[in-house]
Amino acid sequence: MKVTYRLNTLPSIEGLTARIPSHISKQVAAYLFLLPALLIFTLVAWYPIVRAFEMSFQDVNLVGDSQWIGLDNFRLMQRDPALDAVWTNTFEFASWSILLGYALPVLLAILIREMRVAQGFFRVVYFLPTVVPISIAIIVWRLIYDPDAGFLNGILGLAGISAQHWLQDPALAKPSIVLVMTWGAFGTTTLIYLSSLQEIPVELYEAAELDGASPLRRIRHVTLPHLFPMMSLLFVFQVLSVAQVFTEPFLLTNGGPGRETLTPVLHIYNRAFMRMDIGYASAWSVMLVLVLMVFAGIYQGLNWYLNRPRTR
After folding, report:
1. Number of neighbours of residue 262 by Cβ within 10 angstroms
2. Residue 5: pLDDT band by 50, 70, 90 thresholds?
3. Is pLDDT at 4 greater than 70 in this prediction?
């Protein structure tokens, strides 16, 4: 006996969505495609955040049951001798990062935009540091900063300046690390600014040239006003990323000399994986998240206030 099946017996997506209101059915397919990504994002991003918040109120035991201790981890944080040093270092790192690295990508993007030839070549050249593995880059920079035979001290020696202990001197350790961070990240930021510059109508530059505007006046009155929204956004991202820096201080100085380059994430790493104090490290993680959220909220509030529509 031959059994045949009708292919149209299975319900189609159109048949299922026909019973759903039209304003919802239009989004069903999109959410179905997004569902795997949302599940993965929830598993690898939001679940660890919720779990860290839970562990911040516990005395975590990795081989047994954890005990709830309330706010004891946060009270212990107030007595932590590293508390002041960590947040002072974070503020100084952010200040050095803005001073050394915030304006550099803008300047490079504008210079490349003004070039008449070889724009593609310089885009590739400035982006190359981004593709270098950070561990390899750190090894190279350690050789550059070497106090005995480093490249920088060799240049200073040619100028008659004594050798410097770049990573061992408390006054030089932070700017030295920020220089490495800037070298590794400014290529990506430059490309972002270049893409924003491509959106500026050419007619604005032509009109400025017809009015006799010099290149500096064109940059001031045409380029920078169009770049300001992107600059404002990347300013927030830069401060947030610098506050979470870990790799460069860990590999270059391990938080030293003393606690001069100890950052929140490095301190969390030391407490969680060196001292196995998971609950206390989770409390630090929660505080870091809250501080960064407050900073982002205050900055966005000020940005909205300064750019709100004025009514007469």
Report:
1. 21
2. very low
3. no
Residue 59: in which H helix or E strand, if any?
strand 58-59
* pTM reported for the whole predicted model: 0.82
Q: Name the token pair of 219.
A: 């940059």
Sign of CA dihedral 166, 170, 174, 177: positive
Alpha carbon distance 137, 276 (integer Å)? 30
How far is it, in rounded angstroms, from Cα 171 to Cα 185? 23
The closest of 7, 5, 25, 27 to 15, measured between CA atoms, is: 25
CA dihedral 49, 54, 55, 57 (to 10 degrees): 130
At residue 272, the pLDDT reads: 92
CA 286 vs CA 107, 112, 142: distances in Å: 36, 42, 33
Residue 178 vs residues 78, 84, 91, 199: alpha-carbon distances, Å: 28, 20, 12, 31
User: Structure tokens of 71?
Assistant: 């706010």
Place of tokens 């992107």: 230
